[in-house]
Specification:
Strand content: 25-35%
Structural class: alpha+beta
Helix content: 25-40%
Number of strands: 23
Shape: globular
Number of helices: 14
Distance between the termini: 26 Å
Bound molecules: ligand 87F
Largest sheet: 5 strands, mixed, barrel
Amino acid sequence: MASGEGKKSKDNASGEGKKSKANASGGAKKKEVKRETGLGLTNSKDENFGEWYSEVVVNAELIEYYDISGCYILRPWAMSIWEIMQVFFDAEIKKMNIQNCYFPLFVSPGVLQKEKDHVEGFAPEVAWVTKSGESELEVPIAIRPTSETVMYPYYSKWIRGHRDLPLKLNQWCNVVRWEFSNPTPFIRSREFLWQEGHTAFATKAEADAEVLDILELYRRIYEEFLAIPVVKGRKSEHEKFAGGLYTTSVEAFIPNNGRGIQGATSHCLGQNFAKMFEINFENEKGEKGMVWQNSWAYSTRTIGVMVMVHGDDKGLVLPPKVASYQVIVIPVPYKDADTKGIFDACAATVDTLSKAGIRAKADFRDNYSPGWKYSHWEMKGVPLRIEIGPKDLANSQVRAVRRDNSAKIDIPSAKLVEQVQEMLDNIQQNLFDIAKQKRDASVETVRTWDEFVGALSQRKLILAPWCDEEEVEKDVKARTKGEIGAAKSLCSPFDQPELPEGTICFASGKPAKKWTYWGRSY
Ligand code: 87F
């Protein structure tokens, strides 16, 4: 790795662009650690968001820090969330006749630089292999930051006639971008996992349709799986992928620090890459044409957004749809209780739930108390806890406790599956509803520059009428530059409020063309 940077930095997620000095002033913000168990968080989400995030991802056993800054170990608890989303997305794209493939991790310098415009701005982030053992490589080799330049020479080779189209490939892989600003687990890391889709069509109409079909899948990942509301929209010329024609995205919002976050992108590349890589085909009439291309991706960033949106002061809160255990069953034997009976009831509960397709697990460890287990599984965000003690055994019932709102109910054993399923569905819906309430409460519609600046200082997600001029966006960035980062456009929502004739741009005073979301962002 040419960058040779191995120093350990303590990452944070405050999104304030600098390290927050955690509790330097005497720990007034610290909550007392539960010393007896070692469980519990020392930082609170509302008071010290960045430190809280760093603590949650580690204490919930999602990640472990690594000795290379910006690189993180994804532990099974994180990987299982990724896999659940992967199973969904992979099946959906297969229904669309998109096929999986795998291209190499390494890129030769010639190929990487072929599409200059696209690589230029990103060049500082490309990591290079320069040595093998002690000897310098004759030609250094780049590590893929994305795979356009890796794949498209072969698209040129494989596509000859209209019968070779559409060509629709996807790969699940890792990419490396040697970021220098504020690394944050899941949100901005130097290596991350994603899927990247790269498709080629005979017509623009087909490409346009696919851009939106994929974007809808991304919306579903966020809203249906992660219980996070997103806005679908189009990126400005300034914020789009420079190598493409236009970029669409799903945008989420973190109310605690007032930052927007791009959740996933679906680009129409137009014919830019086709020109560069000579991806041509002959149509039915024997005429030559250039393909229309798309590319699209979502990454492990999804998991970070989920932690930020739903987590609380007890730790992670997992939406049931992505929880690897949806139910944790904990035996609560008292001194003289029928311990074997209780353990058997726990095992039977897991068995019944599992047979019904509910992901359940019992914690039979005998070196931890029930209280410790409660805290442990709360920290890990398991949606539903089932406790079984002597009274429950006697009454043929179990006690269920929700992670999202701590509500407790007794469920008769005969109605176990039905009621647990109903509670899980309620938790999923409740998490989405609360996240949407908070997001919506953060939206502020403004019409003037003064209102814009006021809303920005209150960490709002700002909806403003805009003239859609690139120079004006650059000006907004320049005028809002400061300690905690400049404001930029997030997207112009597809779902546009009415824009009455004569509405003027909040920043330039020129006629407004569209409503656009603005804010600070990750
Ligand atoms: C970093 C280094 C080199 C982003 C980079 O969004 C190149 C790039 O091209 C780069 N960071 N990008 C843009 C990626 C565009 C596009 N690629 C396929 C996607 C979706 C998946």
